[in-house]
Design goal:
The chain contains 3 helices and 3 strands, in the order αααβββ. It is α+β, with helices and mostly antiparallel strands. The chain has one domain.
Length: 133
């Protein structure tokens, strides 16, 4: 009986230390999960801005496409704050690219990849024969 008592006395405070390690691990998992959700949301916003910008650029030119993509990014708030839109016209096709960084929730340097989205559509131009008189 004395041996058991001595053995238990040696382990005094172990539960507290193990509990603190478990709490730190749970908080780390929650933080990484929240950052992953922020990245996924920024990627979704970038894809939406590129698609809507491509639709506007196909009908109204590259400047209209960039303006529309910037409006979408501005409406997204913090998720679109570090994203930039560009447009290019090549041949009979217009492409809108949205690139940048996802928002960082914590100041810890993490290896967060850059956000990139692109959308292309054919230009909506009428030939001279189809143009209205």
């Amino acid at each position: 009986m004395l041996r058991i008592r001595r053995r238990l006395a040696c382990e005094r405070g172990d539960a507290l230390v193990e509990g603190l390690f478990a709490l730190a691990l749970v908080l780390l998992v929650v933080a990484v999960g929240a950052q992953a959700l922020a990245y996924a949301h920024a990627r979704s916003v970038a894809a939406a801005a590129a698609q809507d910008g491509a639709r506007a650029a196909a009908a109204g030119g590259t400047q209209a496409g960039v303006a529309r993509a910037r409006a979408i990014l501005a409406a997204a708030g913090g998720a679109g704050g570090r994203l930039r839109a560009t447009a290019s016209e090549e041949g009979n096709e217009v492409t809108v690219n949205v690139e940048g960084q996802a928002p960082r929730l914590f100041s810890v340097p993490l290896g967060i990849p850059a956000v990139r989205a692109s959308a292309s559509l054919p230009l909506e131009r009428y030939s001279d024969a189809e143009a209205a008189p």
